[in-house]
């Protein structure tokens, strides 16, 4: 296991300005992670302010508890779809703002035992919540060919989804596909070349999304956050690929047309050149926000 607590929050200044933190406000960090954004929110809160952080990953929460030791902070394990239940259990019915920083963290990728990285010689896993049953191994070794192709196409926008699915099935006639590296090798053989981006990137993204039901969770989380936002409360979302951003964009547009939200910016905010130079992982990030009317 590779252990690293080094964490660089993406679009930190922009997200906090968009969130417009009030000293006595109640804020939700729906993806607490290692606590980077949460720590900055906390620094802007007064004695009466409160911060609630949730995450599906126990490891991330353990780090967040170390980094955010403060009686104004409540850290809870849970998914986006459980957001309202978590808040209500804390006797919180309304919040002043919610921040979602989507995607997989470097902590998860660099921990090869978690099976997120195509470089890992460990078993395919990709669960953000290690207590759930479904893993990437189950999808790759138990889903029928057509379903694997669907997952790769829908969640990875993989142009060679059918060929990769067929290659996986051919491999399965001899032996199961057990490790991340084995799956990556199958994809590389389908592509027969390596480009700027690793050929398995879209496949691994698709499997991770399917394992964790990320798109459904995101939709439910956004709806729940808006339900508990106070008037003039703010919703801020940082996404990292087109599928996530499309959901967020369409969500804000739909709720704006319904008179529930108003977009804070017409276009998403992007990292500047200095940030992408310091933190290459931020290159694909997009920040969108909306205020409750």
SSE layout:
Blueprint lengths: L11 H8 L6 E4 L6 H9 L5 E6 L2 H10 L5 E5 L5 H7 L5 E7 L4 H5 L25 H7 L2 H12 L4 H12 L7 H12 L9 H12 L1 H15 E11 L2 H16 L3 E3 L9 H6 L7 E7 L1
Parallel strand pairs: 1-2, 1-4, 2-3, 4-5
Antiparallel strand pairs: 5-7, 6-7
Polypeptide structure, described:
With 293 residues, this protein is α/β, with parallel strands linked by helices. The protein has helices spanning 12-19, 36-44, 58-67, 83-89, 106-110, 136-142, 145-156, 161-172, 180-191, 201-212, 214-228, 242-257, 273-278, and strands at residues 26-29, 50-55, 73-77, 95-101, 229-239, 261-263, 286-292. Strands 3-2-1-4-5-7-6 form a 7-stranded mixed sheet, with helices on both faces. α2 (36-44) links the parallel β1 (26-29) and β2 (50-55). Residues 1-6 have low confidence and may be disordered.
